[in-house]
Amino acid sequence: MFFGPKPLTVATARNAALINLLATPGLGTLMMGKLVLGLAQLVLALAGFVIVLVWLGAILRQYYGQISGDVEVRSVAWIGLLGAFLFAGAWIWSLITSLGLIRLARRNAAAAPPAPPLISP
Fold this sequence. Notes:
mainly alpha; about 120 residues; 4 helices
C-alpha cells in the first residue's frame, strides 16, 4: 500500500520530490516504491540527525559543566560537522533521485497516447 509501486505521473513524482526535499530525505522515494533506495536515504538522514543531537548534547554538557567549574572545554565541532555532512549528503542524494523521477515521469507522459475526446450528449 504505502510501499507499493505507484503509477508514475508528473504529479506523483512532484509530490514525492516535495516530500523528499522539504520533509524527510528518502520518504518521497519510499512513496514512489523505491524501497532500498528510500531506506538508504532515510537511514543516512536519520544518522546525520542523531549525530547532530549528540553534538548538541556534548555542547550543553560543556556549558553546564562550566557553571560548576569541573569540566574542561574541548572542541566537539567535528561531531556537528559530521552529522551535518551526513544529513546534507542524504538531502543531495534525494534531490538527485527526485530529479530523475520527475524526468522519467515527464518522459512517460510525453510518450503516452493522448486521451480520447469527450463526447457530450
